[in-house]
Amino acid sequence: MYRAFVCLTAEHTAWALPLAMLVCWLSCHTALRLLEQARAESGGRSAGWLVGAAFSAGAGIWSTHFIAMLGYDPGLGVSYDPAITLASLAVGVISALAALTLLRGARGTGGGVAAGLLLGLGIAVMHATGMQGVRVPGTFAWDPVLAAAAVATGCALACGSLLALSRAETGRGLILSATLLSVGIAALHVLAMAAVRVVPDPRADLAADSLPRAALAAGIAAVTLAVLACSALALVADRLRRMNRVLSEQRTALIAGEERMRALTDALPQMVWVAPDDGHAVYANRRFQAFFGAGSSSRTQRIDAHHPDERAPNAAAWRQAQEERRTFEAETRWRDPSGAYRWHRIVIVPVPHADGTVEWIGTAHDIDDIVRAREALRVSGERLALALDAGSDGLWDCDLATGEAWTSDRLWHLLGYAPGELPAHARTWRALIHPDDRERAVATLVAHLAGATPMFECEHRLRRKDGAWGWFLTRAKVVGRDAEGRATRFVGTHIDISVRKEAEGRIAHMAAHDALTDLPNRTLFRERLRRRLHEVVRDGGSCAILCLDLDRFKEVNDGLGHLAGDALLQAVARRLSAELPAGDTAARLGGDEFAVLVVSVAHPDEARARAQTLLRAVGRPVRIGDQSVEVGASIGIAVAPADGADEETLLRRADLALYKAKAEGRNTVRAFEPAMDAALAERRRLEADLRRALAGDELVLHYQPQVRPACGRLVGFEALVRWRHPSRGLVPPNAFIPLAEETGLILPLGEFVLREACREAARWTLPLKVAVNLSPRQFQQADLPERVLAILTETDLSPDRLEIEITETVIINDMARALSVLRRLKALGIRIAMDDFGTGYSSLATLQAFPFDKIKIDRSFVSQLGERPSAAEIVRAVLGLGRSLRIGVVAEGVETDGQRRFLADEGCEEMQGYLFGKPQPAERLAAMMDGERPATGAVTEGLRAAAS
Ligand SMILES: Nc1nc2c(ncn2[C@@H]2O[C@H](COP(=O)(O)O[C@H]3[C@@H](O)[C@H](n4cnc5c(=O)[nH]c(N)nc54)O[C@@H]3COP(=O)(O)O)[C@@H](O)[C@H]2O)c(=O)[nH]1
């Protein structure tokens, strides 16, 4: 180290090393910059910069060495071999070229170290070559340690320099790298010079130190610096060229950008323009030019394009925006090239510049379709709102995730609330629904939300604001589901169905209740009975039904009128209801038929006791208007399960018991007994037989004579039906006529009798009249006169030979209609006789209402003549009545001569009875008619007695 210090301070002149260091640093810095250029370029340009860098570095290293050598003074004369000296320059340049070439392509530590080693060794070789060209009077002796230290130090610092360069990213890194390399070169030189000692050789010539060292060194430095300056200039020129190129590229990019911008604005659906404050457009896109014309760019033109209605307000608004330098926005109509006004959205944005001026970028978007669609939407929205308000449905749309809903105003009005008074939320619906309907509604809803039903439909009650419950029909549908299928949106309507429900309720009530008494009707009664019987069968216990029939209802109804009858039925209904405990049912089955369901009876006697209570209640006088009416009732009882476990059987058996009770007289209670079923079965058999009889020839007519005893003349016959039953024998009419009445078989039966009687009478040798009984049911046929006429025509019997016998019941049922039918019959020439006179309710009134041809005194009065004085009075009175009304009177049931005499004495001209002849088959009539002269048998006897 000491040797190096000596070498540095004693053997080198003071200016040499600083000058060499300066040259070295500058050349290294230049070389490294040129290397950067070479790295930045490619191909030949890169190679050029690399050669420049290598030359700069090599010349710099060589100049450093050579300047330092010129400052080296070992105390002997020193000269230089020019060829070797120049060769050392070549070594320096080549070494640098090799190292920098390696470094250019290399990256990372390995490349830097390799290039550094190469450069360090190159510097050492260059130094050694240069030393070979130094001529001194002696020889150089090398200290190997110092020589090796020189090489190592040079290599190490060269490596450090190039490593620093490879990591350098800033100018400061380049300076560090150049500095390290310079220090390395200098250190190598100094250490290498310290390692050499001149061993004087006395034989050698002392070379004259003829070189002007300082001038030469300065010259070398100047040349080197000039080279470096040239390199730097080349570098600057290159920089300028590159800047130029960058500027050119930027200009090209700018032009491209502008073109892109134009293409972009041309592609926009809006009109776009740019104008300075004076409003003259300096740029306008294609759409703008198409709208305003290519040459139109003044603001006046744009303002003129406004619709007259909007021009002035828009111009004022624009001036305001311009003054305040803020964005102007407007939706306005602009006149298009065709002259039509179209809606545009105009936005003009200020763009302030650094020089204080402002440019305005304007856009105008044609929103005509949008505005018109918006307007149409608004109108249709208003219509919808109107429709919703006017309609009867309340609409809602519910977000199921939040429960929040949109509801139409109508919905709130339906509930009596003002819109917004309650939250539009699913929980509001839950809070308002009737507790009894909630479970069903929620179950229906859950099923629909789960996708089990296509629609949610539910009728339920909602509480109105006034607290009343209203019936609503909710119809809704899920219209949105998430990815997992969960319902998200639910829309629907509420329809107020309260009126309908009320009507349905009324209809249901009417369908199940009797209109007159409001008691349950037959349907509801049977339904309740069926339910109760089901319980009895399932759970045990017992119940009873009481069938009740008013005893004198018909008399009240016929005598006092239908209004009185109605009032009576209503009073009875009230009394029945009042007597029943809760749970029992009183029903009106029709007419004057009532039924009571006693839901629980411990013993049949309990049912009987209940029936007696009801009898007493119904039997109390009823006030109707100013009259007091008393009716009784008959009650039939059937108890379940003893008398039957189904409603059909039970009702039938209670009915049978009632039938029996009625047959036994008024105010009677009868419980069902199994024997009654046998009677019913018998009745059924009889009915079936009668049907068969009608179809076959089992029915025959017998004829009973009617006579005028005073002159001993036969005047006619009454036709009386008989049933020649195959097993029962001859069945009298009393055994089957009531059944025929009940079953309706009386109609074909009556028609058979009429036809048969007319046919028979038409065959008679004498033109006697034939009397035929017509039942009330036959009289209900509106076309009865036409039917009778058809039979008369068919049988060819003169109408004046036919006498129709009717009872009072025929007239009383429907007097107006009956009288009309009677008049039409009479108009045909048919005679009308009132049968069973005196047994009815208002015989006199009936006689006054219709001019009968004949009155038949009932045989119950005739048979009591001589036994009951009142019977004689009645007969006398009837005969008097006939005389005063000029109506013929026939006494029937005359069996004795005493009766005949009494009747004859009282002026009765016509008679009928066993005394004159019993009803006989038709084949015997001819003989009787012959007997008008000599007769035998009962008629003959009777007539004979009458004549005597
Ligand atoms: N609608 C129809 N009713 C008919 C018809 N045929 C009969 N009847 C009615 O049946 C009732 C019973 O009739 P019948 O058993 O035939 O009895 C009649 C006579 O036999 C009976 N009579 C006549 N004279 C006497 C007598 O001296 N003593 C006595 N014990 N009985 C006598 O009276 C019946 C006739 O009565 P009436 O019709 O009132 O003149 C009876 O009500 C018949 O009307 C039919 O075809 N259609």
Automatic annotation (TrEMBL):
PAS domain sequence ranges: 380-452
Q: Where is the EAL domain?
A: 683-933
Transmembrane regions listed in the UniProt entry: 15-35, 47-72, 84-103, 115-134, 146-166, 173-196, 216-237
List each copy of the GGDEF domain by range. 541-674
Give start and end of each PAC domain.
328-379, 456-509
Q: Which NCBIfam families match?
A: GGDEF, sensory_box
Q: What is this protein called?
A: PAS domain S-box protein
* UniProt organism field: Methylobacterium terrae
